[in-house]
Amino acid sequence: MDVMKADVVIVGAGIIGMLTARELVAAGYSVMLLERGKPARESSWAGGGILSPLYPWRYPDSVNELARRSQQIYPVLAEALLEESGIDPEFERSGLLMTDVEDRNDAQSWAKRYNMPLQSVDKIMAQEIEPQLATQFENALWMPTVGQIRNPRMTRALRVALERQGATFCQDTEVLGWRSSGGQVRAALTANGEVSAATFVVATGAWTAGLLEETGLTLPIQPVRGQMILFRGPPGLVRRITLHNGRYVIPRRDGRVLFGSTLEYTGFEKCTTQEALDDLSQSAFSLMPVLADLPVECHWAGLRPGTPDGVPVIGVHPELSNLFVCAGHFRNGVVLGPASARLLADQITRGQSEIDITAYLPGVVSEKPAD
């Protein structure tokens, strides 16, 4: 691989890399994706697929703006992926029920500002919304329009659609470094040789900071482990996404119920632990006692690309004019993905964007202290 293969080389074939590729292919660019392992097998696969940040009013405007735009994109995107790939990403408006929220006034102010349906409900109404909910709570907030996507199915659909549209995937191809000169990257260096392109995009999640370190860019992105469990139940047993004290229940269309997650700063250690399994199980049973009757089908861990305030890095490298970054989405890669990809693609294809990109630029984010 020592000749130019595409107009754009994207390093990282997770949900962010593939959504960016989708935007660029639609704009007429040829795209190659280089993936160190298998496509979409890191945090893109491991996450829950809730199409809202958890407690969105606690995030900066820059995160909420991307979420709002992505939420508008998702219904059409899901339909398009089903048509193009034959794989249904299972977009559903399950709604989001949040119990014992202390900063309810902040939530109401945020909802009014962003014109998001949100209502305060009592215990009786909350249990009508989700009958399996336990009674040990005092108040709840209900966001009926919040959706979910089944992210493993979505990423499979993205890959099939992209390959049919001519994008190239090179899996088990880790980028080890860069060859650059004259203020531009000339090639990505892999164990199999150099890969050249006119433009490069780094979308490598938790591995982004290490990959860009030699370019002189220091980004406050670090791996944050999250462990989750999956219960196998009958369809319709649980109906709503429910959030309590930072932990969530997500019902899938086929009856499976996902519960998560931990938040662990353990470096690149991705193993599961018995301690987390026990803790998650007890939290799940406390929130929805019916889950105690269901078998645990799977327990897994993923590495989120953590940033200090959850604001992702989207934009051009401050010193290398053809190297772009789209990473650091922390817990919100799925919900922020479509808008992030469009924002980056606009910078590559048009040199401008519909919104102010300052907060996302690598040179700005690099100034933030790491957690």
Automatic annotation (TrEMBL):
MF (Gene Ontology): flavin adenine dinucleotide binding; oxidoreductase activity
InterPro entries: FAD-dep_OxRdtase, FAD/NAD-bd_sf, Gly_oxidase_ThiO
Keywords annotated in UniProt: Oxidoreductase, Thiamine biosynthesis
SUPFAM superfamilies assigned: FAD-linked reductases, C-terminal domain (SSF54373), FAD/NAD(P)-binding domain (SSF51905)
GO biological process: thiamine biosynthetic process; thiamine diphosphate biosynthetic process
Annotated pathway: Cofactor biosynthesis; thiamine diphosphate biosynthesis
GO cellular component: cytoplasm
This protein's name: Glycine oxidase
Species assigned in the record: Thiogranum longum
